[in-house]
Specification:
By secondary structure, the protein is an alpha+beta fold. It is about 35% helix and about 15% strand. Keywords: Metal-binding, Repeat, Transferase, Ubl conjugation pathway, Zinc, Zinc-finger.
Amino acid sequence: MAVIEALDCAVEFGVKRVVLCFDYHTLFQYVSGRWQPKQQKIQTFVDEVNLLRKNFTHCEPSLIAKKDVKLAYKLAREAVSSQITKAMESSKKIETCVICLEDKSMDQFFSVKGCNHEYCCDCMKQHVEAKLRDGMMAKCPHEGCESELKIDGCENILTPKLAEMMKQLLKEASIPVTEKFYCPYPKCSTLMSKAEVHQLTRSIYEIGARICDKCGGTFCVSCRVPWHKNMDCAEYKRRNPNPLVQESKLKNLAAKNLWRQCIKCKHMIELATGCYHMTCRCGYEFCYTCGAEWKNKKATCTCPLWDEENIVDTEESDDDDDFGVQHEVGFLHVYAESSDDDLF
């Protein structure tokens, strides 16, 4: 019956004080003990109710008029709802983020896979974003921890643009420098491995021609340039012994603006702000002034570490999501790829 179900729920939620409301006079008399039931079924019911009443510090029956039943239902619903809310609030564990020192519920925390160090989602998003802007994969911010953050565990705290950047960095790191191949069309520059290149759709022109999956452009696998129609590779190289016009323009522009070329992956980069210790998107570290490699986070040259003009930066970006213009320490602008000698 409804009375027994209600008492069971009250016991489950830890309620200690209960009033049993009856709008049926006979039943009220039975439960209050003023009348003794003659039917076994009713006696069993009364016995069960009295047994449940022992779980409460206060549990007394009350006779109410039928018109007051709706009010009793309302009060009961409010009481049950209040107990449910209290139970849910007490079940929410509060933790303090060691980075921002704010108290937050555990559903607002991010756990790093592998080491299980936990930080709030807001701090982890900023940490991952800062590393991606510097062209590096993020690791657990806990001191001394080397656990790398995985894309499958970070997608729920990253914007689609940041998630795509992370996937690109992972691909860059997974392909050895000697195996990397970039689409030669400047507006594309899609990264592929040599194995992926050979699996691309073959062009109708020649055996060495492939079609880029992303931009649809046809290029020569051997020469690494847009397809030279009606000309074999030997003839193309004979006619083009010097760098392409666009590459010559790039090198002149780089010399004029003091851009540098990574020795390892040959990408052109520019120091926006910060010190001269550069970390390329391929992971190679070097001195921006002379090109000497940094080993174990230490310079192998005697060049100055920074210029005050590059450290102090008062400009602000118009769009925080625009990664083409950044003003963060050590950020690298990637402009183009060149296969020639380093520009130092």
